[in-house]
């Protein structure tokens, strides 16, 4: 893999601390939903910093879309979220990863379980399904602290046949939601997910603690280990 120049061509806020960035990357080889990319910044004095980010949308020519959340005291994310402007350039390298991916030719039911910014690669899968006209049924369980932290809120609100979306709030839930604010529980996956007998492909992404808890719950419900694919977000310096 080689580093490629990437020009920011569009940007939009997702939340108060997260931003979706669309780059044009000449010569981009394409990617699968669920893969990620390395981003490198170079300062005027030659100092470089790089971080990995999941891609938020399926392949679309030479366009690559990321959603980045600011990490307090980080080196890369604050610049990408707060300072990068249309026309500015960074460097990208990828795509990276071949296990945590969804392919449009798959017809198995899919269960997506995202915690916080772990929604990003799962959204790429949702968009890839729509782009391909796939009839594979998808269910998304999206765990987040409160409604103000929802990524892709308008898009996920629109009807999408074959996609069911359930929000699981952990700190503050809207008044009309009957489920109390709490961490993900066994009954959340039992009620909002697929029965293990359906043999769904399960994708779990988020912070390490969330991923471990969700994967254990899926195993407790009888899901086959080989059908549970996980991606963890750990401390990277931002």
From TrEMBL:
The chain positions of domain FAD-binding FR-type read 1-102
State the organism named in the record: [Actinomadura] parvosata subsp. kistnae
Cite the GO molecular-function annotations of the record.
2 iron, 2 sulfur cluster binding; oxidoreductase activity
* InterPro entries the record matches: Cbr1-like_FAD-bd_dom, FAD-bd_FR_type, FNR_nucleotide-bd, MRET, OxRdtase_FAD/NAD-bd, Riboflavin_synthase-like_b-brl
Protein's name according to its UniProt entry: Oxidoreductase
* Record keywords: 2Fe-2S, Iron, Iron-sulfur, Metal-binding
Needed cofactors: FAD
Residues in the signal sequence? none
């Amino acid at each position: 893999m080689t580093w490629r120049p990437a020009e920011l061509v569009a940007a939009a806020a997702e939340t108060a601390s997260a931003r979706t960035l669309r780059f044009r990357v000449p010569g981009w080889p394409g990617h699968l939903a669920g893969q990620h990319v390395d981003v490198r910044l170079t300062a005027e004095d030659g100092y470089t910093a790089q971080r990995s980010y999941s891609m938020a949308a399926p392949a679309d020519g030479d366009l690559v879309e990321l959603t980045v959340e600011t990490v307090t005291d980080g080196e890369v994310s604050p610049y990408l979220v707060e300072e990068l402007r249309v026309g500015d350039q960074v460097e990208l390298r990828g795509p990276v990863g071949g296990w945590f991916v969804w392919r449009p030719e798959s017809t198995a039911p899919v269960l997506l379980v995202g915690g916080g910014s772990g929604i990003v690669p799962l959204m790429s899968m949702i968009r890839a399904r729509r782009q391909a006209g796939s009839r594979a049924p998808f269910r998304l369980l999206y765990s987040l602290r409160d409604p103000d932290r929802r990524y892709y809120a308008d898009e996920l609100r629109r009807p999408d046949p074959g996609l069911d979306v359930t929000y699981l709030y952990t700190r503050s839930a809207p008044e009309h939601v009957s489920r109390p604010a709490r961490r993900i529980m066994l009954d959340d996956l039992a009620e909002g997910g697929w029965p293990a007998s359906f043999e769904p492909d399960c994708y779990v992404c988020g912070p390490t603690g969330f991923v471990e808890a969700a994967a254990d719950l899926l195993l407790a419900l009888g899901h086959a280990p080989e059908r549970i694919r996980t991606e963890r977000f750990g401390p990277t310096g931002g």
